[in-house]
């Protein structure tokens, strides 16, 4: 098996539930990223949700994002997410997934440093190593390559990126540049990844691939549909997603050549 077919490349599946974590584990995922409200781009999962996902036995990387929307945070939001970093690690997370930008579109290095420090402190308390992933906030930055190049100096272990594009396969050239700009950091390609895209991403230097492998859950509405919140603007949109075992297995097969 060659590197181009995915030898040594990690598979991460984004999940929102213990059931999703079990499906990812059974399908051969190396780890999961756990969040709530994936339909809104993901927000911080509760401690109970983290603990339940950890109990499945798959390593859990917990997203820390206090709200949907942009990645420019005020002091109160940064403090809240610092506390959330500690809480998800205390609940058993093997890592945290964080990111922030300044209003000028640069990586907010002070916020990231604070979250890295909180993760390392929580790791000491927990008595185990804790990883830090810099998430796709960098894809909304003015210069994704420059933002990713700061990761080694911030103590970040991993960068999740689409190369600044809508999908990772569209950003493959920039992913290649990011891999060269961030030595010692695991570059993980994610966003709209299909199993058939995986060989191209690995060939571009991605050391890991990330996908949600999701499908809409079947509607189980017992009565009439009534809109509730922005996500429920239509009966078709008013649903949630679940992890698809077939997509996880296909991604694993693509990595294994």
TrEMBL record:
Q: Which SUPFAM superfamilies match?
A: CutC-like (SSF110395)
GO annotations of cellular component type? cytoplasm
The answer to whether UniProt assigns keyword Ribonucleoprotein to this entry is no
Q: Which GO terms describe its molecular function?
A: copper ion binding
Where would you find this protein in the cell?
Cytoplasm
Keyword set for this entry? Cytoplasm, Plasmid
| Main localization (coarse) | cytoplasm
Gene3D superfamilies listed in its UniProt record: Copper homeostasis (CutC) domain (3.20.20.380)
Spell out the family assignment given in the record's similarity comment: Belongs to the CutC family.
UniProt name for this protein: PF03932 family protein CutC
- Organism in which the protein naturally occurs: Streptantibioticus cattleyicolor (strain ATCC 35852 / DSM 46488 / JCM 4925 / NBRC 14057 / NRRL 8057) (Streptomyces cattleya)
Q: What is the lineage of its organism?
A: Bacteria, Bacillati, Actinomycetota, Actinomycetes, Kitasatosporales
């Amino acid at each position: 098996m060659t590197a181009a077919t995915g030898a040594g490349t990690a598979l991460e599946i984004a999940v929102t539930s213990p059931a999703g974590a079990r499906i990812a584990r059974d399908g051969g995922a190396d780890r999961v990223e756990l969040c709530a409200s994936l339909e809104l781009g993901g927000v911080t999962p509760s401690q109970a949700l983290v603990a339940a996902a950890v109990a499945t036995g798959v390593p859990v990387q917990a997203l820390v994002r206090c709200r949907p929307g942009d990645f420019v945070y005020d002091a109160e939001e940064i403090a809240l997410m610092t506390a959330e970093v500690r809480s998800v690690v205390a609940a058993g997370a093997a890592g945290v997934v964080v990111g922030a930008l300044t209003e000028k579109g640069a990586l907010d290095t002070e916020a990231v440093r604070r979250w890295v420090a909180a993760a390392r402190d929580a790791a000491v308390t927990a008595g185990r190593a804790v990883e830090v992933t810099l998430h796709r906030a960098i894809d909304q930055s003015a210069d994704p390559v420059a933002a990713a190049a700061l990761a080694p100096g911030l103590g970040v272990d991993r960068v999740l990126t689409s190369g600044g594009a809508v999908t990772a396969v569209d950003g493959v050239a920039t992913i290649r540049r990011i891999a060269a700009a961030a030595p010692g950091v695991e570059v993980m390609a994610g966003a709209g990844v299909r199993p058939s895209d995986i060989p191209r991403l690995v060939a571009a230097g991605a050391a890991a691939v990330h996908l949600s492998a999701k499908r809409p859950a079947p509607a189980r509405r017992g009565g009439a549909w009534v809109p509730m919140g922005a996500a429920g603007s239509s009966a078709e949109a008013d649903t949630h997603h679940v992890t698809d075992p077939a997509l996880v297995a296909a991604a694993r097969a693509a990595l294994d050549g």
